[in-house]
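Run folding on both entries below.
>entry_1
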Amino acid sequence: MTNPDAMYGAPKHYLRFAAIAILLTLIAFTLAWELWLAPLRAGGSWLALKTTPLLLPLVGIVRGRIYTYRWGTMLILAYFAEGAVRMYTEHGLSGRLAAIEVVLALAFFGTAIAYTRVARSDVALSDGRSTESA
């Protein structure tokens, strides 16, 4: 019998670590963008508050909760959309920063989807194993 921890434990761990790292990077990046790198107004702008929704799923992502990964993928689509719009409407540094936001949003989206699939498969395998041995 195949051990599900041996099959999915390592990829699940790496995907979870990658999702945490990407989310933290996106939080730091959006703050830096709106406060120092290319704020709408000199000295920073209120648009830096767009970072606060990213803090909501942080605890669940760190704890590896599948439900948080699922709704986190929906939340991140707003950041993808904002980055895509700003990438095409703004020029110079802001346009390049928007492209980076798009890449980070897509990276988190893909990593969260992959983690959800692996974690769901892990749960299905462990449930199947417990019913076979009973």
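>entry_2
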Amino acid sequence: MTAGFPLPDTTDPRLAPFWEAAAQGELRLPRRVHGTGFDWYPSGAEVEWVRLPGTGRLFTWSVVERPLHSGYAGITPYVSALVELDGAPGVRLVTRLLEAPDRLTIGAPVIVRFTDLGTPGPETAVIAPLFVLHCVKDKS
């Protein structure tokens, strides 16, 4: 683990199921038990953690050229993104894309890759859902 790389609190009870699922190679988000829809970012409502397919569409992105924190220097430049997740209407997940920015377009299909949060730089021992472009073959 590299000192100085900002890490999420994987033990926070509101988010521990998210990080535990990621460590097992699953993307799970909290869906309200009473009412409809997902509760992302968890607010404290009664929820059940639902497994999602790990696919979605690129809503927007930004190429970060200068590290916002000195700990990010090992991964800069990187692509920060919002991904609209399949199976979770209205949910957009803040993540990173492991792709060259010249290949990105709004609405592009993406798929999750569970990898160390510090990829491609320092090893952090935290597995995170990062995304790559997903090539969808035309069935016509």
